[in-house]
Amino acid sequence: MTAPDIKTALPGPKAKALIDRDARAVSPSYTRPYPLAMARGEGAVVEDVDGNRFLDFAAGIAVSSSGHSHPDVVKAIVDQAHRFLHMSGTDFYYEPQVRLAEVMGEIVPIAGPVRSFFGNSGAEAVEAALKLARYTSGRQYTIAFLGGFHGRTMGALSATASKAIQRRGFGPLTPGFYHAPYAECYRCPLRLTPDTCEAECLGFIEDQILLHLVTPDEVAAILVEPIQGEGGYLVPPQQFIDRLKAIAGRHGMFLIVDEVQSGMGRTGKMFASEHFGLQADIVTVAKGIASGMPLGLCSAKADIMSWPPGTHASTFGGNPVSCAAALATIDLLRGSLMANAAAIGARLMDGLRALQAKHPLVGDVRGKGLMIGIELVRDRRTKERATSERDALVQAMFRRGVLLLGAGKNAIRLCPPLVVSPAQADDVIRLLDEALGEVAAGGR
Ligand SMILES: Cc1ncc(COP(=O)(O)O)c(C=O)c1O
C-alpha cells in the first residue's frame, strides 16, 4: 500500500459515522487527537474506513514494532490460535510462555539468570515490578521521576507523574511514592549543560528525599525510564544513568528500568538501557514486544523473583497467542528490524536537524533510533512552550496523511513501525517542512 493518499475530506463519511457511534457508546476518557478510523494496515501504512491512506509514525503509541500485520507475526498467531487460545499460565504450563521467558533471559539488560512474570499491559508489568520490589526487599517506598509515565492502574498511576489530569480526581493514590526531577537537559532548572553537569538533578534524591522524607533503608526501588517517553522523549546524559545506578547500589535499592516504550528494538538496540551500558535488577516490557497483541512482562534477576506460589498471578497474562506473536516479533527484531531502526532513525535525525536550522519553531530535536522527539518553542531564547503550535502541527500532518502523536506539553514524537523505509522517512521530513511553514504562518 502506498501513502499518503488522501481522497476525502477528513473525517470522511464512514469515519464520521463511526465516530458518532463511538461518542455514544465508548468511554469519553480517551484522548483522540484527530479523527482516524482504521480499516486495515500494512507495514507503516494505515488505511482508514473511507480508503484514505496514511503514513503511520505513531504505531499505535509505539506498539506496532514489526509493522501492521507482518506476515510472520500473523502466521505465528494463526498457527497458535489453531492449537489453543488460552489455558492460563497461572495454573498450567505451555511451550510459548516458557520459550518466551527463556528468550527474555537472553535479551533483557539484566546480569545473570532471569525470571519473568507475564501480564497483559505496560501497567501490569509495572504493577508486578512494584509489588516484587516491595515483597523481596521488605521495604515500602519507591522513588520515581517527575514527567515519568508508568500506566494508569492505581499502583502504576501513583508512580506516574506525567500530566496532572491523569491523577486528578483519583486520590488518594497508593502511598509510598516520592518523585525526583528527571534529566530534562534542554530545560535544566540548574542552567547546566550535559558537558558541565554531573547529573545534579539527582542530588534531589540524596539531599532532599532521603534527608527529609524517608530513610534509605525503607526505599525498595528506584523506578526510571531510560528515555522518558510520554514526558517528551527525553534522552538523559550518561552521567544521569551512572549516578542513578550508584545511588541505588549505595543504598541497596532495586533499580527498576521501565522499557515499556523504549524497549524492543525501537532505539536501534533491543533495549534503550544498552545505549548507556545500564544493567537493571528489574525490567518492565510491553508495547512493541508482541507487535500489537496484548502482553506485558516484568523480568528480574532470578534471585529477586523468588516469590512463592500465590503471591502474584494473572488469568490472561502470558496468553499463548500473544507469546507466539512476541517470539515471531523478537526473531524479526534480531533479524533486520533493529538495524533498520538505527539506520532510519539516523536518516530522520539528519532531516530534522536541517528542519531545525530552517524553522525557528523547532527548539530541540532528540532521540535514539526510531524514538525521536521534536520540541516546539515560541522563542529559542526563552524556550516558551509552543503547545498550541504543536497541536496545530499534529493536525496539519494528519491533513497531509501522516499520523503523529504529541509527547509532553509541546513535543511531537516520531515512533513509526521499525519496518519504515528510507522513502517513507524522507516523505515525512518533506511534509513536516511544509507543515511547519504553515503553522509558523499561523495556518490552521
Ligand atoms: C514507559 C511506560 N510505562 C508504562 C506504560 C503503560 O503501558 P500500558 O498503557 O500498556 O498500560 C507506558 C504507556 O505509555 C509507558 O510509556
Would you write up a description of this structure?
This protein has 444 residues and is an alpha/beta fold. It is built from eleven helices and 15 strands. Strands 4-10-9-8-7-5-6 form a seven-stranded mixed sheet, sandwiched between helices. The protein has a four-stranded mixed sheet with strand order 1-2-3-13. A four-stranded antiparallel sheet has the order 11-12-15-14, with helices on one face. A hairpin with a 2-residue loop joins β1 (38-42) and β2 (45-48). α3 packs antiparallel against α9 (320-358), α4 packs parallel to α9 and α10 crosses α11 (422-440). Bound molecules: pyridoxal-5'-phosphate. Residues 61, 121-123, 126, 149-151, 225, 229-230, 258, 260-261, 286 line the site of pyridoxal-5'-phosphate.
